[in-house]
Amino acid sequence: MKNFTPVQFDLNRAFLRPATHYQPALIETLLPLAEIVAEGVLTEDAALSVMTVGDQALAFVTLQLVYHHVVQGNLEGEAWLVSFCSICNSGAVFSPVVEDEVYRFSERGLYDAMVLLYDSETGSYWDHLKGQCVYGTLVGTQLKRLSNLLHMTAKQALSAYPTIQVALSSLSPEQAEEGKEDDDWRQEVQPEWSQRLQQTLGQEDTRLPRLDMGLGIWTEGMAGTSRYYPIRKLHEMENAVIDTFLGRLLVIYIDPETATPGAFFTDATSLKWIGDELRLSTGDAVRNATLFSKQGDLKKMERPLQLFSRWYGFAAKFPDCSIYPKR
């Protein structure tokens, strides 16, 4: 946890709920994903969101995450907090530890057309993507970021992380139906916005259409080191490109199975698709969202911080971001 200089929070355009509408999930038991798939609880094509802590990986059923908005638990002795907003289509992973105490969080409103988090201990409100307290007694407090949150199928997650565990929650039929409606809305190209959402927006960056989808990458604590890759631009470049970020080569590609973008650092200078396999000039290859060496051994992807997000959301949090390709 560290301090930051808070931006001005405009209470006039914030929508603060008196109570959460979506009950957060507290996960006490983690289960091996391989067993859950083998037992038929989840299918291989189930949509998951994946986080990592050290060498350990943990998956969430995306639909459950969309409903709860906030899920908390513990992995290998590390407390974690996952937030997800179906409006901006992005999520983040933080440590919920504040002043040596594990705080309990929930969804409790909207700001900048995104979910606001709320802690039960002090009644403060938090930015769900940057982990910063923006309103209340803890303004100036920053949560520690733990991981990216990546989109994968169950099959891909098991390929990339063979020992991955899964955090399952229990939804009532009504909750599951509401979660499905939100998940369908999340994936629409031009979802209909309510007047209430519109009213929470501040000044917008109009360099791209508000609801465009893309991948945003950044480095925390370094001004001017954030970049956005519009999906439509990646499509024009055959769904894969090598760029330079912070002086290093970076692969940005759209996974053919999930149609979601991802990025990882590389030494490769060229790439090409062979069917659904992305082959790099180093001899490495990406298949099933997994990086393999020329010899076929599993390799760890070194990833920058990244968000699969609508343009308005990433631009609001990283107002100095560049757009690929440079204009």
Please, could you describe this protein's structure?
The chain is an alpha+beta fold. It folds into two domains: 2-183, no CATH class; 213-323. The chain has helices spanning 33-38, 62-68, 154-160, 173-186, 195-199, 231-236, 311-317; strands at 2-3, 15-16, 25-26, 31-32, 47-53, 56-61, 70-75, 78-85, 90-94, 97-98, 101-102, 105-111, 114-119, 125-127, 133-135, 141-142, 145-147, 150-153, 165-167, 213-218, 226-230, 240-245, 248-254, 261-266, 271-274, 277-280, 285-287, 290-292, 298-299, 305-310, 322-323. The strands form eight sheets. A five-stranded antiparallel β-sheet has the order 2-12-13-14-15, with no helix packed on it. Strands 3-7-8-9-17 form a five-stranded mixed β-sheet. The chain has a five-stranded mixed β-sheet with strand order 4-19-6-5-18. The longest helix has 14 residues, at 173-186.
Topology of this protein?
Blueprint (H helix, E strand, L loop, with lengths): L1 E2 L11 E2 L8 E2 L4 E2 H6 L8 E7 L2 E6 H7 L1 E6 L2 E8 L4 E5 L2 E2 L2 E2 L2 E7 L2 E6 L5 E3 L5 E3 L5 E2 L2 E3 L2 E4 H7 L4 E3 L5 H14 L8 H5 L13 E6 L7 E5 H6 L3 E6 L2 E7 L6 E6 L4 E4 L2 E4 L4 E3 L2 E3 L5 E2 L5 E6 H7 L4 E2 L4
Parallel strand pairs: 3-7, 6-19, 21-31
Antiparallel strand pairs: 1-16, 2-12, 4-19, 5-6, 5-18, 7-8, 8-9, 9-17, 10-11, 12-13, 13-14, 14-15, 20-21, 20-30, 22-23, 23-24, 25-26, 26-27, 27-28, 28-29
Helix pairs in contact: 2-4
Task: Write out key terms for the chains shown.
five-stranded antiparallel beta sheet; 31 strands; 2 domains; single chain; alpha+beta; 327 residues
